[in-house]
Design goal:
The chain is an alpha+beta fold. The protein contains eleven helices and 40 strands. It has a domain of about 250 residues: Alpha/Beta hydrolase fold, catalytic domain (Rossmann fold). The strands form ten sheets. An eight-stranded mixed β-sheet has the order 33-34-36-35-37-38-39-40, with helices on both faces. A four-stranded antiparallel β-sheet has the order 2-3-4-5, with no helix packed on it. The protein has a four-stranded antiparallel β-sheet with strand order 6-7-8-9, with no helix packed on it.
């Protein structure tokens, strides 16, 4: 007999990511990550699957292997901690060790190691590799041998000299840059291809590996919003700037062939602006505008049940395959360029989400979430559209638990705009009973919720709650006009959430309108803070990694100085009133809703000062409130925090709702 979903089921999940096809297109490698309850950490392993015969085999067992690349049709290259040396030397010098493993079996063998913190690697040919390294601009000053120990920067103190000075999940980034380097195994030489002050955002190699395109911002004080697009030649070691930054961001680089470079370019006229899709003919020095789907490249369908990364686009056979969000699902697109004409087609439009992909010949492999199941590896025939599941990593969990399929509908808000609605009824729903409910609000705001598995929501349903959610104006998947709510935060979106709640109450008379809670993180946390100050209709709130004061948000967080000021369309000095009026803290004295705050003390995206301010304001107001502060966690607590902390976070939220929505 199947069991209800429980919080502790997190420990059973297996998360595939970083899927890659072998050069001959016959095998797919991927990483599988699992929670380790005893160690309170994550273990990751390398797997390989055959596209013919539908078999999957685990290759590595050390627990720290991930993000492998193919050296040839049977050999994988990956990084992992050295067995005989620490990740960092006593003097603070980082070290990265690379291994090879034969997919036919056998032990991994060390290939080489470099004294750099390497984020990714790309083979260039026998014994030559392109490395992406996170480097300090200046070498750290080391104490003289025998000198007394002094305070150590990075351990005892930090120095901030630029913006941004820290970044979520990366820590302090002051005077650090992501640089590209050429490593040559013969002689063990490392040659940097980009300057010490240049921070590389994305890069791509031409099919022959003779050209390197990359985008980078170069600064010594305040990071610009844009970046330059550059082209490096391995033949003569020269770099050419194709386009300067000038307030534009160049991303999503991919060579369609040796002479054709694809990229996107985004302006910053308003947050939520979708990019242009462009092609540069290298031999002609000519830029060509392409058709595009009014969407950024990538998947933005949110869930707390995915882990790891991977590519969102891949050029193959002179065509580009890429992911975009379409309403509340991910679709796979194909872009074909003929001369100056471009054509777009959709290769997969199934409900669900695609996290990452790779393409070779007529086959695409991807990590997908289908039919309320956890992520698995799939193959897709690009000619016939036939989709085949290759892995069965989470079959045991799926067969063991009861999940609830969300009801889906669309409705019109007060302005006549069509919006989506999703409703999970309580597990074992009885139409004769009345139940409490929770309105879930996603982050972003330019992301989306869909029908895929979401552990928090399924657990709430299993505990006897209605769970309902929508994608208000500001969300992704509906084009840039829909996403543009600049200067309208807490206005258009607030109306959409209120209209949606009314619609759900109308459709589901079993939902107790006096026992509804609200729950959200990041932008969803902002909305929680905003709503409790502007309406009393909700009986409880769980506000996570939230925003309460746009003055402190804009001037303390990693993206505050550019993104958040753009959201409000002004700065604190030009328009004090807008900054204060849009800050939920301004309405805190009127808030009566019992509110739980969940916060992490290393969240540099939504710094903890905002949660503390809102908590203090509610305390002074006499409103029931509680703050749970997680040490050593960042903005990703709900998605990639330490396993035990993720479990405890849900326990805190559910206990709060049980107290104020069920009276327990």
């Amino acid at each position: 007999m199947k069991k209800p979903v429980s919080i502790q089921d997190f420990y059973r999940f297996k998360f595939p990511s970083f899927v890659r096809l072998s050069p001959d297109g016959k095998l797919a490698s991927f990483t599988v990550t699992q929670m380790d309850e005893q160690a309170n950490a994550y273990n990751s392993y390398l797997y390989v699957s055959g596209l013919e015969g539908n078999w999957v085999r685990q290759l590595s067992f050390g627990g720290k292997e991930k993000n492998a690349v193919w050296l040839d049709a049977t050999t994988l290259l990956f990084s992992a901690p050295a067995k005989d040396a620490p990740k960092e030397k006593d003097d603070g010098t980082p070290s990265t060790v690379f291994y090879t493993i034969d997919v036919g079996g056998g032990e991994a063998q060390e290939l080489f190691r470099v004294e750099q913190s390497v984020g990714s690697i790309a083979p260039l040919g026998p014994g030559r590799f392109l490395l992406s390294c996170n480097c300090p601009v200046e070498a750290a000053q080391k104490p003289e041998e025998g000198a007394p120990k002094a305070a150590v920067q990075g351990k005892d103190f930090e120095i901030f000299e630029e913006l941004p000075f820290w970044f979520n999940a990366r820590g302090v980034v002051n005077r650090k840059r992501n640089r590209l380097a050429l490593y040559e195994q013969e002689g063990g030489t490392l040659t940097f291809l980009t300057g010490p002050w240049s921070n590389v955002q994305s890069f791509s190699l031409s099919p022959s590996k003779s050209l390197l395109a990359y985008s980078a911002s170069t600064y010594e004080d305040v990071s610009p919003r844009g970046n330059a697009l550059c082209l490096y030649s391995f033949a003569d070691g020269t770099t050419r700037e194709l386009f300067p930054a000038e307030g534009k961001a160049h991303e999503d680089l991919a060579f369609l062939d040796e002479d054709s470079l694809f990229y996107t370019r985004t302006g910053f006229e308003w947050p939520g602006r979708n990019p242009d899709y462009l092609l540069y003919r290298i031999s002609e020095g000519k830029e060509l505008g392409l058709l595009h789907p009014d969407a950024p490249i990538g998947n933005s369908v949110g869930t707390d049940s995915s882990y790891g990364g991977g590519a969102a686009l891949k050029a193959s056979g002179g065509q580009l395959y890429f992911l975009t969000t379409d309403w509340s699902s991910t679709k796979l697109n194909r872009l074909t360029v003929d001369g100056e004409e471009s054509r777009l087609s959709v290769r997969s439009r199934r409900d669900g989400a695609i996290a990452c992909l790779d393409v070779a010949q007529d086959v695409c492999v991807f990590v997908g979430m289908r039919d309320r199941q956890l992520g698995e590896v799939y193959s897709l025939n690009l000619n016939t559209g036939e989709e085949l599941r290759l892995s069965s990593l989470n079959n045991e969990f799926t067969a063991d638990v009861q999940t609830v399929a969300p009801d889906y509908f669309t409705f019109r808000n007060r302005d006549g705009v069509e919006l989506e609605g999703y409703v999970l009824k309580p597990l074992d729903f009885d139409p004769k009973k009345v139940y409490p409910g929770v309105l879930e609000m996603h982050g972003g705001p330019k992301v989306s919720f869909g029908g895929i598995y979401h552990h928090e929501m399924q657990c709430l349903s299993a505990k006897g709650y209605f769970v309902f959610y929508t994608n208000p104006r500001g969300s992704d998947g509906r084009g840039e006009a829909f996403a543009n709510i600049t200067c309208n935060l807490g206005n258009l979106d607030f109306n959409d959430f209120m209209d949606f709640t009314d619609e759900v109450i109308r459709r589901y008379p079993q939902l107790d309108p006096c026992k509804i809670g609200i729950c959200g993180g990041s932008y969803g946390g902002f909305m929680c803070n905003w709503m409790i100050g502007h309406t009393d209709r909700f009986a409880a709130a769980a506000s996570q990694r939230s925003i309460s004061n746009y003055f402190t948000k804009a001037l303390t967080t990693d993206i505050g100085f550019n993104h958040n000021m753009s959201q409000l369309g002004t700065t604190p000095w030009k328009d004090f009133d807008t900054f204060w009026r849009t800050s939920p803290l301004s309405a805190a004295p009127t808030a009566k809703t019992p509110t739980l705050f969940i916060q992490s003390d290393e969240d540099y995206r939504c710094w903890m000062s905002d949660a503390l301010q809102m908590y203090s304001a509610l305390k002074l107001n006499g409103t029931p409130t509680k703050l749970c502060l997680f040490h050593g966690e960042n903005h990703e607590l709900s998605r990639s925090g330490k396993p035990k902390n993720r479990v405890y976070r849900l326990q805190e939220i559910f206990a709060w709702f049980d107290q104020y929505l069920k009276g327990e």
